[in-house]
Automatic annotation (TrEMBL):
PROSITE patterns: PUM, PUM_HD. SMART domains: Pumilio. Pumilio repeats lie at residues 125-165. InterPro entries: ARM-like, ARM-type_fold, PUM-HD, Pumilio_RNA-bd_rpt. This is PUM-HD domain-containing protein. GO terms for molecular function: mRNA binding. Keywords: Repeat, RNA-binding, Translation regulation. The keyword RNA-binding applies. It comes from the Eukaryota.
Amino acid sequence: MFRVMEDQYGTHVFGKLVECCNSSQLLFLVAKITLNTQTFVGSLYSKPGANSAKGLIKVLKNSALVYEITSILSSKFVELMSDRIASNVILQCLGILNASQNQKSASHVIEKCLMTFGTKDVLEELVSFDKLWQIAGDQYGNYVIKRALQIGKSTNSRFYQELLERLEQDKDKFRTSYGMNVYNMVVTGVI
């Protein structure tokens, strides 16, 4: 399976295979991955392997199985973020956070990235989201936004001001129970 994931043509086969799998077949694939985490992580350093993993994450985004994959990513995030290709798999978790029912596991990975040298990449990705306010008002996403504001300010990131401005524009859209803390941070400027 890992050879197929890492092959320049096999990655397309793997993608189609994953898209066609039923829940028990996906469970089998994820079980195989969790039994071979080192091989899985090793495959992420090649472009085809990273693309295969991103496709798998995309298919699993509404499944409880995504937690198994994001747990592996979370445990190796420092190593993965240090590689240009593998870091794209971590950044794929932002897409999960924006559009998934399993935001808790994705937000955990993203928060870890923010607290390391992946800060610039994550802040840049957050600023580029069209619907940043949805993440700010989300049950788990609001933690990511709060952490991004705190870390962005403390590191004097150039993306901090952009993030703050984007949130300021749409602040009324995330003035909900989950987004209230982010709202208060934006309105009062106390971060």
